[in-house]
Known about the structure:
- The chain is mainly alpha-helical.
- It is built from seven helices and no strands.
- The chain has helices at 2-17, 21-24, 30-48, 55-61, 67-84, 114-117, 120-130.
- Helix 5 packs across helix 7.
- It is elongated and about 60 Å long.
- The relative contact order is 0.14.
Amino acid sequence: MPNTLIDIFKLFVRSAVEPAVPLWSGAIIEKEKNGIEKVQKTAMKLISGSSYRDYIGSLKKFNLDTLDPRRKKICLKFAKNCTKNDRFKHWFKLKPPPNTRYKDKYLRPKTNTKRYAKSSIPYLTELLNENE
């Protein structure tokens, strides 16, 4: 029965707290991260029932991640797919050769405001550079 509850959680609850993750993930603040994580913590308590000991233990039991690394995986996958797609690869410009001084593969967009610096394209570019 717990597997069915986990499947329901993944299908209905996670999809409600993670819509358009690549769009807003770079701008999320710590308080919002904690609020979203609290949804998963509560679900783990409800699904585990009387066998609940702690959050991390429940995640391991059900083979789940905390939501912050999950958001990063989703964003990185999205960004990599965009670099392969002709319609969207212009979002991430490759550094011109020679690229000897810095290890970054993609040019960081010029950001004049903090708001733009936290938006999706600079955040996704940063993720691509960290994982290339």
